[in-house]
Write a structure and sequence with these properties.
4-stranded antiparallel beta sheet, about 50% strand, globular
C-alpha cells in the first residue's frame, strides 16, 4: 500500500494464532497486529494504505478497518469472492453467485450499490485500470458442457455487456494496462492435432474484435482439467500477451 506499508496475514506465535498485520517497510516501527483472523483469510489494503478489509473464509465475513481511527465495521456476511479495491481506492467491490450479485461499497459515504442481475463465477471481479467498470466471468449450463460468458458491468450506466460467450470452461480474461481492451483466452480442441490457444481482443467500450491463434502444433498444450483456468497478462509495451496454465508451458502471443 502506497509503497510504504504492507498488510498481510501472519502467524503470531502459537501454531494457530493467525492475525491481520501491518508492516512498516522502512523498519522503523514494529509490526502492528490489528485482529485475529482464520487461516486462509485475506487482508486487502486500499492503494493508499488508509484502510483495509479482511475476508474471512471461515466465518464468511468481510470487515473494513480504518487505519487512522482504528474503527472496524462489518460489511457483509455470506458466500462472496475476494473484495477488490477500485484503482483510486474510493470504492470496494465484491461478487456473489447469490441474490446480491455484485456489491459496490463507498466507504466515505458508507453507501452501497447492488447489481443483482450479475452473477460472477466464484464471485471474482477485476476492476478496469481506469475505474468505472468491472470485468468477470459468468458460468451457466449443465455440468460437463458449461456456457461461459465474459461480461463487463459499466458502473456509470448499470449496463451489463457480454464481451464473449462460448462453451468452454478453461478460459481467462484480462484488461489491457490502459483499460481500452479486454483479452479473452481459451484452449480450443481440434479434431486433429494438439489443442490450440485462441485469444480474442475486444475494444472497450466498443469497437473491433480481433482473434489471435497460437501456431498449430504448439508443443505441450493439453486439454485443461475441469475447474482449472488459464492465466493471461500483458507485457509492459502492450505488444504481447503471456499465457500460462495447468499442463501448459508459459508462452506468449504477439498482438501486432
Amino acid at each position: 500500500a502506497a509503497g510504504r506499508t504492507a498488510f498481510g496475514r501472519a502467524r503470531g506465535g502459537p501454531p494457530n494464532d493467525w492475525g491481520a498485520y501491518q508492516f512498516d517497510l522502512a523498519g522503523t516501527a514494529a509490526p502492528r497486529r490489528w485482529a485475529t483472523v482464520a487461516y486462509g483469510s485475506r487482508v486487502i489494503p486500499d492503494p493508499a494504505g488508509k484502510q483495509f478489509v479482511v475476508h474471512d473464509f471461515v466465518s464468511r465475513t468481510i470487515d473494513l478497518t480504518d487505519v487512522d481511527s482504528g474503527k472496524t465495521g462489518r460489511l457483509a456476511e455470506g458466500d462472496f469472492g475476494t473484495p477488490v479495491w477500485s484503482p483510486d481506492g474510493a470504492s470496494l467491490a465484491w461478487g456473489s453467485t447469490g441474490p446480491e450479485g455484485i456489491v459496490v461499497f463507498d466507504p466515505a459515504n458508507e453507501s452501497r450499490s447492488v447489481f443483482a442481475d450479475c452473477s460472477p463465477d466464484r464471485g471474482e471481479l477485476d476492476w478496469r485500470p481506469g475505474g468505472g467498470a468491472l470485468l468477470f466471468r459468468h458460468v451457466d449450463g449443465t455440468e460437463g458442457s458449461p456456457r461461459c460468458a465474459t461480461q463487463v458491468l459499466d458502473l456509470a450506466t448499470g449496463r451489463l455487456v457480454t464481451v464473449s460467450e462460448l462453451r468452454a470452461e478453461a478460459q481467462a480474461h484480462v484488461w489491457s494496462p490502459d483499460g481500452s481492451r479486454i483479452a479473452v483466452g481459451r484452449v480450443e480442441p481440434r479434431k486433429a492435432g494438439a489443442p490450440q490457444i485462441v485469444i480474442e481482443l475486444h475494444d472497450w467500450p466498443e469497437g473491433e474484435t480481433r482473434t489471435l491463434t497460437m501456431p498449430a502444433g504448439l508443443t505441450g498444450v493439453h486439454p485443461i482439467p475441469d475447474g482449472e483456468r488459464l492465466f493471461l497478462d500483458w507485457d509492459r509495451e502492450w505488444k504481447r500477451i503471456f499465457v500460462t496454465g495447468p499442463a501448459l508451458p508459459g508462452t506468449s502471443i504477439a498482438i501486432d
